[in-house]
Design a protein that fits this description.
Strand order of the largest sheet: 4-1-7-5-6
Shape: globular
Helix content: 25-40%
Largest sheet: 5 strands, mixed
Number of strands: 7
Radius of gyration: 15 Å
Structural class: alpha+beta
Number of helices: 5
Mean pLDDT: 97
Low-confidence stretches: none
Distance between the termini: 9 Å
Order of helices and strands: EEEEHHHEHEHE
Length: about 160
């Protein structure tokens, strides 16, 4: 049995950089505004994993009004979500994530993001895709107001 999940998340720029994306500190003059560390890549992946099993979203499990999640490393949240997936008798087959951002440039950081995420998902790096695209200067991402991320995962019953 297979389950597909889709995740989407957005964070606006604000404060000092760097941006944390896929567990990597990507140099930029601004960070991302969030209750946690603002890792919009990991948040979208968490939502896709939870969505695949119809468990809700990360806000349900890690609400932004709970101080224990203030400034938390989002990779910790991802590890917890993976544990929930395992508890339901599933494993990750693959993950495909697209970052929509005019800035910062992140091509040189994508390999490390993939390694970080693959490690937590307990899959080979070849099963994790993370790529970035601009929006050709259109919309809020094109105006460099923030970053949006979409993620799709495939889970398999163990």
């Amino acid at each position: 049995m297979f389950r597909i999940g889709h995740g989407f998340d957005v964070h606006r720029f604000g404060g000092e950089g760097p941006c944390i994306l896929g567990g990597v500190k990507v140099p930029y003059e601004q960070g991302l505004v969030a209750h946690s560390d603002g890792d919009v890549v990991v948040h979208a992946i968490c939502d896709s994993l939870l969505g695949a099993l119809a468990l809700g979203d990360i806000g349900h499990f890690y609400p932004d009004n709970d101080d224990k999640y203030k400034n938390i490393d989002s990779m910790i949240l991802l590890k917890d979500v993976v544990a929930k997936i395992k508890e339901h008798g599933y494993k990750v087959v693959n993950s495909d994530t697209t970052i929509l951002a005019q800035a910062p440039k992140m091509a040189s950081y994508e390999a490390k993001m993939r390694e970080n995420v693959a490690s937590v998902l307990e899959v080979e790096v070849s099963s994790v895709s993370i790529k970035a695209t601009t929006t050709e200067k259109l919309g809020f991402t094109g105006r460099k107001e923030g970053i949006a991320v979409e993620s799709v995962v495939l889970l398999q019953k163990v």
